Amino acid sequence: MKAIGYYRTLPITDPEYLMDLEVEKPVPTGRDLLVSVKAISMNPADVKSRAAKMDERDTPRIIGWDAAGIVEQVGLDCELFKPGDEVYYAGDVDRPGCNSEFHLVDERIVGRKPASLDFAQAAAMPLTSLTAWEGLYDRLGISRNEQNNWNQTILIIGAAGGVGSIATQLANLSGLTVIGTASREESVRWAKDHGADFVINHKEAFVPQLKALGLENVDYIFCLNDTAMHWENMAEAIVPQGKICSIVPTNQPVNLNAIFSKSVSFHWELMFTRAKYRTEDRIEQHHLLNAVADLIDSGELKTSITQRLEPINAVNLRIAHEKVLSGEMIGKLVLENF
């Protein structure tokens, strides 16, 4: 089968940064699905994984964690899907990724593809939806009941990115007043179009901008961009006994004492945790993706796709990596059809 992978860590300018490959088609066992991949989308996780230090190896590494496709075969223990079902998922960072014509994935972290979306539109959604949903509802503990969130505010740092595009919509649907951050005219417009009530500039101090909106503090902060850089601003902007969640590991120490006197809680969110540690509740990602599909099909949630490339090959995947590395992506870039 066709796949895109690499044998060693190389700069993006190297011709072997990503390579078109022919590899053996896998066979599903247990609760694995064999999915015929129709579309994949790009995330910072792809670029970070490709940049990670790796010695030269005999077998290629295949990455990619966002896919939509059709179930080709199922393992003997599968209960949730059958051949012919259309699915979407993000997968497991500790297994081969979805940059391949056929892909094995545990059915417990797979959802049914939204019927109203084509494969490319659907492929834009899994990783960002899982991250946004878990961050808001599992980590920050926000209620999905609109009435419980009246007069509650959330600041979403990086509102125009892939996760931000979903988080702003979900927070808006949950009745929160949503303050997004963006620094360019087009990203400000995107954030407002996807559920942000207000937008402030994350390159400037937060509190003066919040006060200009009539707000002293915010109840929740969801940080989707450079935790260390925004730490002091977050500590100043969060309400006493508020909650902060971030999806970005720090590359330098941060002053935890800055949130001590306010009794603020801090949470990490990584949507790969359940799959990586084989947690007992990993089937929650199946339920979560199905709930997202329902919101999409009812018209309450919009796909975040902004660009398509075709076909799925090393040349186009390199272009996609370069787009992510530029730091100026709005929404999601998707590749479709091998």
Automatic annotation (TrEMBL):
Pfam families: ADH_N, ADH_zinc_N. Transmembrane segments: none annotated. It comes from the Bacteria. Residues 13-335 form the Enoyl reductase (ER) domain. Keywords: Metal-binding, NADP, Oxidoreductase, Zinc. The keyword Metal-binding applies. The keyword Ligase does not apply. Belongs to the zinc-containing alcohol dehydrogenase family. Quinone oxidoreductase subfamily. PANTHER family: QUINONE OXIDOREDUCTASE. This is Zinc-type alcohol dehydrogenase-like protein. It comes from Cohnella suwonensis.
